[in-house]
Specification:
Length: about 110
């Protein structure tokens, strides 16, 4: 089942994209099937458009794709397309996890 979610974040789009695509941070926000077998390393499908995709060899029904865009006041808007799992609730939860990881990244450095 494919699910979609969008969320605004109070961080520059580059920070959001870099946090999302950092393999060391993926375990904190990606659903479990996408954290296995190296799937945490994304395929950056367009650096200019800040798009990335995750897939898993061991869970072929699972994939995630994000696009990060600039938003008002220097923030970012993130769209997540998630295949696998139980729908929009998991997509919303996944973006909430990413937002926490972005906030942690901002306060850590």
């Amino acid at each position: 089942m494919a699910a979609h979610a969008e969320r605004g974040m109070s961080a520059p789009p580059e920070v959001v994209f870099n946090t999302a695509t950092d393999p060391d941070r993926a375990a904190a926000w990606l659903p479990a099937p996408l954290r296995q077998d190296g799937a945490a390393r994304p395929e950056v499908t367009s650096a200019d458009e800040m798009r990335a995709r995750w897939a898993s060899d061991t869970a072929p029904d699972w994939s995630a794709e994000i696009q990060v865009q600039p938003a008002d006041a220097g923030g970012a808007r993130v769209r997540l397309d998630l295949a696998g799992g139980d729908g929009d609730g998991l997509a919303d939860e996944t973006l909430a996890n990413l937002a926490r990881e972005v906030a942690d990244n901002l306060t850590a450095g």
